[in-house]
Recover the amino acids of this structure.
């Protein structure tokens, strides 16, 4: 079954604990925690203090997506703060440092993954595939919520799926960016099994129906 990961970037931060409880009750599988530093991406979001507080408020699986420069510097801290999985952009540092960040994360008993931006080719994940639990393909430019799904990324999702099936069949394939009831089926058909959605879930009053619509999306 396709897993749904609501992105709290679109949640009401004044009631983040309640928002999290609501999407958990609505059937969400992961909670996507977007971290932006204003350097790697042109926006600033949330970080370690918010994660520590949120960890106290929920037992949901927290998927921390680090859109930050040189993430190896903070891998251990995000694990200690309560992330269950931490993902690192391959574009954010050298290959050796991304490998080090993965090693730190897994040594702390957490899951680890890598992320690729729209301009980054699928084969950029090859050095990391045997070592990670998830590959995240961005279908928007990282940095802001509410963007439109980039259909031209579908062949790349399919290529990453081929690489996973060949080299690391237990690895998950996550897609983030413009996912809603209309685009989810396209991402799944291309090979995704984890879908991140922000405004398509938190922007609706009936979160259970929003999650159901995304999970059961069909290509028209």
């Amino acid at each position: 079954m396709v897993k749904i990961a609501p992105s709290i970037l679109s949640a009401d931060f004044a009631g983040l604990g309640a928002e999290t409880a609501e999407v958990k009750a609505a059937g969400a599988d992961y909670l996507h925690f977007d971290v932006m530093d204003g350097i790697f991406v042109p926006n600033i979001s949330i970080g370690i203090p918010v994660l520590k507080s949120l960890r106290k408020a929920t037992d949901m699986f927290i998927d921390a997506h680090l859109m930050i420069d040189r993430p190896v510097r903070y891998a251990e801290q995000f694990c200690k703060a309560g992330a269950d999985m931490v993902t690192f952009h391959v574009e954010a540092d050298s290959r050796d440092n991304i490998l080090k960040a993965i090693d730190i994360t897994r040594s702390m008993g957490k899951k680890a993954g890598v992320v690729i931006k729209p301009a980054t080719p699928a084969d950029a994940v090859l050095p990391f595939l045997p070592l990670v639990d998830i590959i995240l393909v961005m279908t928007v430019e990282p940095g802001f919520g509410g963007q439109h799904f980039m259909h031209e990324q579908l062949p790349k999702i399919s290529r990453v799926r081929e690489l996973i099936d060949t080299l690391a069949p237990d690895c998950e394939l996550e897609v983030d960016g413009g996912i809603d009831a209309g685009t989810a089926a396209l991402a799944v058909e291309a090979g995704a099994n984890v879908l991140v959605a922000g405004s398509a879930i938190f922007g609706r009053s009936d979160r259970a129906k929003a999650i159901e619509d995304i999970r059961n999306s069909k290509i028209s």
